[in-house]
């Protein structure tokens, strides 16, 4: 079996190589001719697997029978076209959700430090309460931070009313979150049509309705926010703080908007090694199942030990300082912001954006760091455990 795999999929030889011959191709260069004699195609989000690619591939005799994307998002894949040609499909739901939550907490902690506020005194609105938003809600709630949630499709499907699921807070509409929250985090997929379409979910009118001082964080998909309207508000009034990981027109994103965002990163919120390996592993299992082969490798076979496994804390810090210190040992979104701006200046935006992603440094998840708390630091246990670290008494 020949498996064409995006060059940025880690561990493909070790994992997918068990099932067939792996041929690497840069994601932006994958086209119909690339899969002329391939049985399977494994992509990430930058490859548009659309109806024309599939139809052309079939027209030139491609035997393609499976497409996998090692990502959560699926808006780059025409699932109907695959089904119409009898091609199996799988994505990797939830694979990098923990990494995105790490990114959100690390970014908010940096903003709190820069702007002199405490997260404990802010109310956070979460839009899209699936694998990412649900985990974010869980961690913030465990850190005793006040949250409001918005997810109309879930409300409709699960008849959630005033009482939320699993003892979580009730769900509200987006305009209530806009009115009542200090921080608004978007974790919605890109859905172009239907009653719950998310294209420009935050349109000019909703952006205008955000109260001065609001923090807007988008780690869902760039097209969920009207970037032009956001740029105008930031440039004209300068009274919002934007944290943007995803953008319209990636990789050729709006450089002026990137300059105005307090934290601007090149779509790397989910880029932990753990998250990427989970993505590869989920697709390996799905392909093995599809072709009737055993999938022998486990995640433990793929993930190396973390470079920093344990940290012991003594007294002498505030809880916020202790939390920030632990987060920055694992992940510092200021570094991602600086890399994007540096590479955009050096190579131009589109090349710099892609280059930062292709050469992303090793990053692990908060859960890989064990924190030992000595006498005097033990009161931080609930906060640090709530944020996602493994905590014990040293
Ligand atoms: N920045 C990154 O690196 C990164 C990483 C992972 C995922 N993502 C993006 O985040 C999205 C969400 O990821 P997930 O794992 O939570 O997906 P998910 O499918 O588990 O959850 C998405 C949730 O959004 C809800 N939703 C859909 N339309 C909505 C609307 N109009 N208003 C409010 N909620 C709505 C859905 O009901 C669902 O509960 C992905 O589709 C992907 O596009 C980005
Ligand atoms: O949908 C996802 O899983 C994320 O957006 C993912 O991080 C995208 O990364 P890419 O496929 O572009 O490397």
UniProtKB/TrEMBL annotation:
The active site is at 221, 250, 267 (proton donor). Keywords: Cytoplasm, NAD, Oxidoreductase, Pyridoxine biosynthesis. Residues 32-270 form the D-isomer specific 2-hydroxyacid dehydrogenase catalytic domain. One of its GO terms (biological process) is pyridoxine biosynthetic process. It is an enzyme of class 1 (oxidoreductase). It comes from the Bacteria. Residues 113-269 form the D-isomer specific 2-hydroxyacid dehydrogenase NAD-binding domain. It catalyses: 4-phospho-D-erythronate + NAD(+) = (R)-3-hydroxy-2-oxo-4-phosphooxybutanoate + NADH + H(+). Pfam families: 2-Hacid_dh, 2-Hacid_dh_C, DUF3410. Residues 304-374 form the Erythronate-4-phosphate dehydrogenase dimerisation domain. GO terms for cellular component: cytosol. GO terms for molecular function: 4-phosphoerythronate dehydrogenase activity; glyoxylate reductase (NADPH) activity; hydroxypyruvate reductase [NAD(P)H] activity; NAD binding; protein dimerization activity. Pathway: Cofactor biosynthesis; pyridoxine 5'-phosphate biosynthesis; pyridoxine 5'-phosphate from D-erythrose 4-phosphate: step 2/5. It is found in: Cytoplasm. The keyword Oxidoreductase applies. Substrate binds at residues 45, 71, 271. Homodimer. HAMAP family: PdxB (MF_01825). Catalyzes the oxidation of erythronate-4-phosphate to 3-hydroxy-2-oxo-4-phosphonooxybutanoate. Belongs to the D-isomer specific 2-hydroxyacid dehydrogenase family. PdxB subfamily. This is Erythronate-4-phosphate dehydrogenase. It comes from Halomonas aestuarii. The gene is pdxB.
């Amino acid at each position: 079996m020949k498996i064409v795999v995006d060059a940025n999929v880690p561990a493909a030889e070790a994992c997918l190589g068990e099932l067939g011959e792996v041929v690497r191709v840069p994601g932006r260069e994958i086209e119909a001719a690339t899969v002329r004699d391939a049985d399977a195609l494994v992509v990430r989000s930058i490859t548009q697997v659309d109806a024309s690619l599939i139809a052309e591939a079939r027209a030139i005799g491609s035997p393609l029978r499976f497409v996998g994307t090692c990502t959560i998002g699926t808006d780059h894949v025409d699932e109907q076209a695959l089904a119409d040609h009898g091609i199996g499909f799988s994505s990797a739901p939830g694979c990098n959700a923990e990494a995105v939550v790490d990114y959100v907490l690390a970014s908010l902690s940096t903003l709190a430090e820069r702007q002199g506020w405490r997260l404990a005194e802010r109310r956070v609105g979460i839009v899209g309460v699936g694998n990412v938003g649900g985990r974010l809600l869980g961690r913030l709630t465990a850190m005793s931070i006040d949250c409001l949630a918005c997810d109309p499709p879930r409300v409709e499907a699960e008849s959630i009313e005033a009482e939320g699921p699993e003892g979580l807070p009730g769900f509200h509409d987006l305009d209530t979150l806009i009115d009542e929250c200090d921080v608004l985090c978007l974790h919605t997929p890109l859905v172009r049509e239907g009653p719950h379409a998310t294209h420009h979910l935050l349109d000019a009118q909703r952006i205008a309705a955000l109260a001065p001082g609001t923090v807007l964080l988008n780690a869902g998909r760039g097209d969920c926010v009207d970037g032009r309207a956001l740029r105008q508000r930031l440039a004209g009034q300068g009274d919002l703080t934007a944290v943007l990981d995803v953008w319209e027109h990636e990789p050729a994103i709006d450089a002026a908007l990137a300059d105005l965002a307090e934290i601007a990163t090149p779509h790397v919120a989910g880029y932990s090694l753990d998250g990427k390996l989970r993505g590869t592993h989920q697709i390996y299992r799905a392909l093995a199942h599809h072709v009737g082969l055993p999938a022998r490798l486990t995640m433990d076979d793929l993930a190396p030990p973390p470079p920093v496994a344990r940290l012991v804390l003594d007294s002498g810090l505030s809880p916020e300082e202790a939390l920030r210190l632990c987060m920055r040992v694992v992940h510092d979104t200021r570094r991602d912001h600086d890399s994007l701006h540096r590479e955009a200046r050096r190579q131009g935006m589109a090349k710099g954006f892609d280059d930062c992603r292709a050469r992303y440094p090793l990053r692990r998840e908060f859960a890989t760091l064990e924190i030992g708390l000595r006498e005097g630091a033990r009161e931080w246990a609930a906060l640090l455990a709530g944020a996602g670290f493994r905590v014990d008494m040293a």
